[in-house]
């Protein structure tokens, strides 16, 4: 109750702040002229409760704030690049990693092999998603070189080591990492209110070049309209997660704002239940669902997709058949369905009724309604079932004809995570009866294959099979939309990953 009340008070306070700031304080530019410092002001929809990057997803936000860095980093093309690490080489299930000589913490202490290993082990103990790290074998070769031995060949280890939750911090001097963090990023904490505002300032000892900004302030604004008002009133300089309506406002004032929107990594998709739907019905559904129309309706917040990954990725080269209403109807009629007086197909006296299960987040409620309307146009009756927790209801039970879901598909520049979660035998989201012996062998090969070209080839064949068998439908990737004042540059606006924002090159020209 206390947390909920704090959230309400925060919203009220920030709304007043957004309405009254120009009157009482003047524009942000004027304030900076008075202080002589470049302080970037931003909004964030997530309330950070702890600075410990190894806990849950907190590392996403310490990365956003420019406080922490990992051994590797994802670039704008979704590829892994060295960050604190200089290089990495695999020999079977043993990885040898060399650290950059200059890599150091904000207190001047050098990043060493011993400290990195202790961080990885700590993250393995703290974060269940990286639990395997506590069971790996580590060996220090020298102060800047070490090995990681996994229990089996693990070709995507570097992708994991780019995860912001595996940030490297000075464990000996961070004390309580929840509030006192010594890390390697271009910024350090100036002040931190759990669940509220966080202020950062330039790391004067940053190891990787000049830091352009003097600092930044991130205000907790969970409501998108509050961020819009604050941006219009000059209280903030940039933010991500711009709504379609706000984007239209910013587009109409190009002299003040820059708007960048790119397909990101969070996917809307649906599962077709092969245990309850005939081949012809599933095919007819996929020939009817018009993802381009859904993209248009959702007004710039998503980009329609043929597969689970962006088509620019080497493992995103799949295709699906175009919308063809007449072909969909012909399939149903060939299977013995005929239109009744109400305009719905029926067979043996039973109307063809499809239960669409969804949960009301990530625009899935809107998607469910749009799909229901599209199916009606060809004579399929759709009923909607909304659940609060899909993982405890229709995903767990298989009680659906079509199951809507949304998740990050491309977690770290590699296809295996999503494929293993949705298409592998026994996977949690393979709950619609998809089973293909050849595909499972390809998934098993993908798990241990190191060659990136072969990984892409395998992923494309696996996903294409799921599409061709009408086991899944991939709808759209959410766009990452960032707005900046025209003088703001370099906030990772062209990177599809949500966990990057502030960096050494961020500036206010």
Uncertain runs: 1-31
Structural class: alpha+beta
Number of domains: 2
How far is the N terminus from the C terminus?
Answer: 43 Å
Classify the beta-strand content into a percent band.
Answer: 15-25%
CATH top level of the largest domain is Alpha Beta
**Sheet having the most strands:** 7 strands, mixed
Query: What is the helix fraction of residues, given as a range?
Result: 25-40%
At the fourth CATH level, what is the homologous superfamily of the largest domain?
Periplasmic binding protein-like II
Q: What's the alpha carbon Rg, rounded to whole Å?
A: 25 Å
What's the pLDDT, averaged over the residues? 91
CATH topology of the largest domain, which one?
Answer: D-Maltodextrin-Binding Protein, domain 2
Strand elements, count: 22
CATH architecture of the largest domain: 3-Layer(aba) Sandwich
Q: Work out the helix count.
A: 15
Shape: globular
Pfam family, one: SBP_bac_5
InterPro entries: Peptide/Ni-bd (IPR030678), SBP_5 (IPR039424), SBP_5_dom (IPR000914)
Protein name: ABC transporter substrate-binding protein
GO molecular function: peptide transmembrane transporter activity
Layout: helices, strands, pairs:
Layout: H1 2-25, H2 28-35, E1 39-44, H3 58-64, E2 72-74, E3 80-82, E4 85-91, E5 94-99, H4 113-126, E6 137-142, E7 145-149, H5 157-161, E8 187-192, E9 198-202, E10 215-220, H6 224-232, E11 238-240, H7 244-251, E12 257-272, H8 279-288, H9 291-297, E13 302-304, H10 325-334, E14 338-339, E15 345-347, E16 350-351, E17 353-358, H11 364-377, E18 381-386, H12 394-397, E19 402-408, H13 416-422, H14 437-448, H15 452-468, E20 472-485, E21 488-489, E22 507-508
Parallel strand pairs: 1-10, 17-18, 17-19
Antiparallel strand pairs: 2-3, 4-5, 5-7, 6-7, 8-9, 9-10, 11-20, 12-19, 12-20, 13-20, 14-15, 15-16, 21-22
Helix pairs in contact: 1-6, 8-10, 14-15
